[in-house]
Amino acid sequence: MSEDNNKPESTKFETFTQEEYMVMKDDLLRPMEKIGLAGKVWITFLIMVCLAGVYAYYIQETKSKYVTVSLRDYTMWGVYISNFVFFVALSLVGVLMSAILKMTHFEWYRPLSRIAEVIAVAAIMLAGVSIVAAMGRPDRLYFLVTHGRIQSPIVWDIMVIMTYLATSIILLFLPLIPSLSTCKNHMKHLPKWQLKMYEILSFGWEGTEEQWKILKKTIKILTILVIPLGISIHTVTAWLFASTLRAEWDSTNFGAYFVSGAFLLGVAAMIIAIFVFRKVYKLEKYLTDMHFDKLGQVLVLMGFIYAYFNINEYLVPAYKMSGLHQHHLLNLFTGEEAPFYWSVMFFGIALPCILPLFRKMRKPLPLTIIAICVFIAGWFKRYLIVIPGLLHPYLPIQDVPESWKHYTPSLIEMTIVAATFAAMLLIITLFSRYFPIISVWEVAEGKLEGKEEIINYK
Amino acid sequence: MLLLTTLTSFAQDKEATITLSFAKADSVNVCKALVTSEGVPVKEVSVSLFVKRMFSQLPIGEAVATDSTGVASFEVPQDLPSQNGKLTIFAKIVDDENYKNTEASGIVNWGTIIVSDNSKVDERSIFAGRNKAPIFFIIVSLLSLFLVWGTLIYAVLQVFKIKRLSSANN
User: Fold this and answer.
1) Residue A294 and residue B11: Cα distance in Å, rounded?
2) C-alpha closest to that of A430 among A42, A53, A87
3) b/e string for A13-47 if b means 16 or more Cβ within 10 A?
4) B158 and B79 fall within a common domain
């Protein structure tokens, strides 16, 4: 489809078409008009949790870390690091939902892409916060730049995270330009500062043919760039573990294992996000049953791929049951962690593989419940990857204080983890209140190109 | 009965002493162990030779029985690693029918001196410091960074081009 087919004669409207403008006025700009009571309560709650986290961090830094945090000699990585891995995994939703679906011409991505990009940007920011919270000497953070070795996986991780954050912000912002112009022109009753913000951020957008050409080309280049970038970000995070010699992490499988888990988590997060948005902002016409149906099928696909990598990761060492792995694996399969391990496997992998195979389960509410299970199990799965192995070192644990032999996250740690989640939700909520959460011109473009199925799925 | 066994056991085990002497014969290191009991050289007693290592003792050769003059002769290898060349050599009588367990030791300068090979310390390697990273790492990482960030900067410049194309600027 050439660019010209998308441009009917009456493109005096800066965003797209007359139809889009009518649509936007009614549905998609309504959430931005004002924040209702429920919205205010929600935002206040999130801010409270974030402040609790900041206070908890203050306590952590001023009191002895031995008292405030459960990290000890063996479990020197705890929930902060598993939380970090979780957020990096979550940030791959931008790659999957926005970039991969777009490049493979699955047209139903159109209403989803901006939601995906916001989640990606918010998640990757909070991943960085989670890491800094885990540092014993955060005042030495800049050493990573001044003293960092290029041979270190940690330095690679920082480089890739910074790059992915920048790319995701640009990819969030570029398709927003046309929408901002419309917001500026057609929502005159908004506060002046908001209109001024739209004016600055829309960069003089007028919807001329030249501008469209530049915008679309740039979006395409960045969309292609973000796919290998996103996959490499989670691969490098996986290498933080796989480049060590610990028995439970010394696996060639880790890169693909983490990336496939990230895709599964991203689909689950997407399902929850569109369920919430369609309910709260009354966007049922755009985030339709068809999207849930398709996302349910993607959930099954990603579930099977993740199950495959899990089988490789656990069955192969279990078959050999070498001395190095024995204690750790038996602990997971039949020992102390067994109920935990098997529930995570069931809710995190078995459920998304099997239940959405049935059409009834791909309706919005059942699918969202399944997605919530996958999301929560995903967080605990990353806990299982990071922590139990640390408690089974090569030399048996002997003659150490009791608190070193077990790990339970302290209240401070859990508060900070909760605050990272609250901060992510706060960023997403605030974004959706001040910017249109659905990229209307992309939806309208799809409609114009005759891709009826994106809206009128039966 | 008890008295009889006690008397017999005492009668069984006699005291023995070992005296070590070290000599070099025809470029071969020879250690001689002289076993005496009550001043009299003892023959046909099995003596074993050991060299002290970090956590235990390394046996050298087979156990040798003393000859008619009460001397057991051992050849000590020349390639035993040591600290500063010093080896501590033990000679032991263990589980002999007639004599109690005895040992004697001596220090001799027969060990080899280990010199660490530090020739590769300044080389570029994956475990070296920040300034000695492998060239390949530096090139690939900088190249990838420049390519990706170059694309991002290009995207930002394109946004400014959009602004330049707006009618306010034309």
Assistant:
1) 95
2) A42
3) bbbbbeebbebbeebbbebbeeeeeeeeebbeebe
4) no
pLDDT digits (tens, 9 = 90+) for B89-147: 999 998 888 888 999 999 999 889 888 888 888 888 888 888 889 999 999 999 999 99
- What domains appear along chain A, each with residue ranges and CATH number? 26-454 (1.20.1630.10)
User: How would DSSP label each residue in B120-159?
Assistant: TTTS--TTS-GGG--HHHHHHHHHHHHHHHHHHHHHHHHH
**Which one of B141, B152, B166 has the shortest CB-CB distance to A170?**
B152
Residue A429: both structure tokens together: 């909520």
What is residue A31's predicted lDDT score, i.e. its pLDDT? Answer: 75
Residues of chain A in contact with residue B146, where contact means CB-CB under 8 angstroms, are none
**Cβ-based neighbour number of residue B25 at 10 Å:** 9
Residue B150 tokens read as 């170059």
pTM, to two decimals:
0.83
Strand B102-108 with B112-113, pairing = unpaired
Chain A CB contacts of B145 under 8 Å are 159, 163
> What is the pLDDT, as a whole number, of residue A266?
96
Which CATH number do you get for residue B82?
2.60.40.1940
Question: How far from each other are the two terminal CA atoms of chain B, in whole angstroms?
Answer: 125
Contact assignment for B141 to A151 by CB distance below 8 Å: no
Confidence of residue A202 (pLDDT cuts 50, 70, 90): confident
Structural domain count, chain B: 2
Of all residues in chain B, the one with the smallest CA distance to A143 is B130
Chain A touched by B153 (CB under 8 Å): no
ipTM, 2 dp = 0.87
Residues B97 and B156 grouped into a single domain: no
* Residues B96 and B45 reside in one and the same domain: yes
- The answer to the question of residue B52 being in a domain is yes
Q: Does A189 touch chain B (CB under 8 A)?
A: no
Does B158 lie in the same domain as B107?
no
- pLDDT, mean over chain A: 88
Question: Distance between CA A222 and CA A124 in Å, rounded?
Answer: 18
C-beta atoms of A208 and B165 within 8 A: yes
Residues of B whose CB is below 8 A from A166: 149, 152
Q: A340 vs A445, which has greater pLDDT?
A: A340
CB–CB contact B130 A150 (8 Å): yes
Report the alpha-carbon distance of residue A32 to residue A436 in Å, rounded: 7
Chain centre to alpha carbon of residue B165: 76
Q: What is the pLDDT of residue A456?
A: 47
Instruction: Please report whether residue B7 resides in a domain.
Output: no
Q: What average pLDDT does the segment A378-390 reach? A: 94
pLDDT digits (tens, 9 = 90+) for A278-300: 998 888 888 889 999 999 999 99
**Which domain does B153 fall in, by range?**
130-164
Return the pLDDT at A25. Answer: 62
